[in-house]
Amino acid sequence: MTQSYPPNRFWPRLVLAFAAGTISAAAFPPLGMAQLGWVVPALLFCVSGGNLGKHVFVCGYAAGFAQWLCTLYWLLLIPVAWYPVLGWLALSAYLALYTGAWTWFVWRLVPTGTETGCHSGVRKMGVLHGLAEAPWHRQIAWAIACAAAWVALEMARARLLTGFPWLPLGTSQYKLTELIQIASITGVYGISFLMVWASLGALVGVAVALRRAWRRPNWLLHLGLPLIAIAAVSVWGAARLDDKLESSRHIKLALVQPSIPQTMIWDPRENATRFSKLIELSQHALAGKPDMLVWPEAALPSFDAGSYATITNLVGTHRVWMVFGADEAEPRADAQGEPEYNYYNSAVLLDRAGAFIGTYRKRHLVMFGEYVPLSEWLPFLRHFTPVQGGFTPGDKPTEFTLDDLQVKFSVLICFEDIFPGLTRQSVGPDTDFVLNLTNNGWFGESAAQWQHAITALFRAVETGVPLVRCSNNGLTCWIDRCGRIRQVFRDSTGTIYGSGIMQVALPLTKRTGHSVITFYRKHGDLFGWACAAAAVWTIGFVILKQSNRGSQSARASEKIQASSE
Question: String of b and e for 11-25 (b: at least 16 CB within 10 Å)?
């Protein structure tokens, strides 16, 4: 029989779960209390209680729901009515499912010192008491399995329903530069794994120490193993930081941040004002004689003949390369009758003479922001978003080459730089840097800009190439190959959200016929998939074992009943 709390005990625990979720959110910007990230897994375990079934899941779900409501508050700043509230609640409710699933997993597997089944032991002896009495090897295996399950769920979140890999747990530690170098092998998931293992290992160690009054050294094992792993990773990371690649080349970039409010972007009457501001900022930027001028996503009001002529004249006069974001239209080959078009969110490259070189078309579109899923078959879905048209996704990565500079770079648009796999596909053997053009003006002056940037920061570590970000209203910056934020745009008042320009002298590694390719760049999410496989195997093994135990108990009862008759 499944144990459950009486109502007068369950509701206080649910309140504690909401509080735990709020604490979890504090590990990320705007508060950025990174230390809390290390206690979140143990906290979620404790507040979800020792129940099987729905109460464990509900408590975990409540914690996740509270976390994402606090983290994604900036969705409410989108300047339209009703839709942001609906999106905020729906997305938070969806993401909370992963937290609920993890708490269910850890309680399904939690070991105790009884032979009658882990949950029976929890019920009889209490949570920490039962956990402390379990064999030491089962305690260690449990903590590691829970860390693998956390990674598996982060992997799933990055892929299901087009994926939303926003703020994995490991991103909270972006300032610990030595630690995060492990992402060049495991991806960001390696940091998440270490954090969960250390958190639950510390919990087990404390439980053992309190139960046995420090008489046995087992508690040191649970605290020591994760700490040794973290120390080893940090020492290796420090060595990687000291391994300075020879940097004999530079490219001078001028990044324009126009800080155009989203309401102005949507207002065609403001197009002339917007364009004039862009040209004025660009004239200031070109005074520094950069090699390339960069405008962010959604900066160009309209990609028509007049604006194109002005841009090409500007570029040709100053003899500068240029990249800018623009909406691109292409006639559909299968159109019948009136002309029909595919629209793309694109990045355009012009050479020093103003000639068109090529485009990159955004591949990963924002659901309900750039397209409405299933709208052709379910038209009523359009009523749940202000988006009435839709973009078509691009079908391939594009690498741009600046011939006279012998520089190659790839472009990502908007939130594409939070996707590890997508970024990895965009980085070729000789890619010098990745350029992200984005528009976070949707979310006002909020934490979205910082959350986006620290999530994207790990792409530089994973691929081993610098990441340059040019944004409409922040965070315009550049990040070196080790994940260090080297330069951040701030206006005259010190804020990241204002308008202005940032000149960047980006160092590039010396060409030696081959580039340094990270393990992650070569093999991808090998570590993440291994964790996913381990988590699936573990839960399958436990469920099968418990099922067999139940069958044996039932047969034993039948034999006893038959003999008594």
Answer: eebbebbbebbebbb
